[in-house]
Design goal:
Elements (H helix, E strand, L loop, with lengths): L6 E5 L6 E5 L6 E3 L6 E3 L9 E2 L4 E2 L3 E4 L6 H8 L2 H4 L10 H12 L10 E7 L5 E11 L2 E8 L8 H16 L4 E7 L3 H9 L3 E11 L5 E10 L5 H4 L7
Parallel strand pairs: 10-11
Antiparallel strand pairs: 1-2, 3-4, 4-5, 6-7, 7-8, 8-9, 9-10, 11-13, 12-13
Helix pairs in contact: 1-3
Length: about 240
């Protein structure tokens, strides 16, 4: 039973108004009931909650929310059909549709139900957008991740660096319990990527996904638990590969 003694009282780090959450929410992302911004519930005794640790920086990358002024670079990414097919069906060279997508994406928060929370992948050197990461939350304290990287930046360690940093955010930033991912069984690069960050291959679903050229493809599922994620694998400090 939750009583008044089980609640933590502190101030929102964004609007400064007092808020209260149960102790079992410590470390998780919650909505401030006043300004509706996502905040991190702090440890007992803290006067103020914590802001989401975004943007996330690695030696070569910045993982951040998309901004409206990203529209031109995003359109260039969408000129690649391989990139386009994983990006909600946005049409190539339609500026108005890209702007609408950016506007709708800006309203999605970590706590928005049944929506993908996305982070743009940007090079620190030159501020070039090269792809995006996504988190979807099917259950409390669990997330599905995906990554889409432009072909010009593949096989250079950027995907590994980005996924390591995202796992650090999931486990140390917002205290998730489990993170999963899936990929086409023919995508050997994705399989190697998930395995290289310590994710466990949990199963293969036979002919579970339709393919554009006709027929069906197998999908492979990977997962990793918080206690399985080593600091040099998932923490931001370990994201130098």
């Amino acid at each position: 039973m939750i009583t008044e003694e089980n609640f933590l009282d502190f101030k929102c780090p964004y609007c400064g108004e007092p808020v209260s959450f149960p102790e079992n929410a410590i470390g998780s992302a919650q909505d401030c009931p006043n300004c509706m911004e996502n905040l991190i519930v702090p440890e007992a005794g803290s006067e103020t909650g914590e802001k989401l640790p975004i943007p996330i920086t690695t030696p070569r990358l910045v993982l951040r929310r998309f901004a409206m002024n990203d529209w031109e670079q995003l359109m260039k990414l969408l000129s690649d059909e391989d990139f386009l097919q994983y990006t909600d069906g946005l049409a190539v060279n339609e500026e108005e549709q890209v702007l609408r997508w950016l506007e709708s994406d800006s309203a999605i928060k970590l706590t928005t139900p049944n929506q993908m929370f996305r982070l743009a992948i940007e090079l620190q050197d030159g501020n070039q957008l090269i792809g995006h990461l996504g988190l979807w939350f099917p259950k409390p304290s669990q997330a599905m991740l995906n990554i889409n990287l432009h072909r010009n930046y593949q096989r250079k360690g950027f995907a590994l660096e980005a996924v390591k940093a995202l796992l650090g955010f999931c486990f140390w930033g917002i205290k998730l319990h489990r993170v999963s991912a899936s990929c086409d069984s023919r995508n050997t690069a994705a399989c190697r990527l998930f395995e290289s960050v310590g994710m466990r291959r949990e199963g293969e679903f036979v002919k579970s996904e339709p393919v554009a050229e006709g027929g069906w493809a197998n999908s492979i599922w990977y997962s990793i638990l918080e206690e399985e994620c080593q600091e040099d694998t998932g923490s931001p400090e370990g994201s130098s590969t």
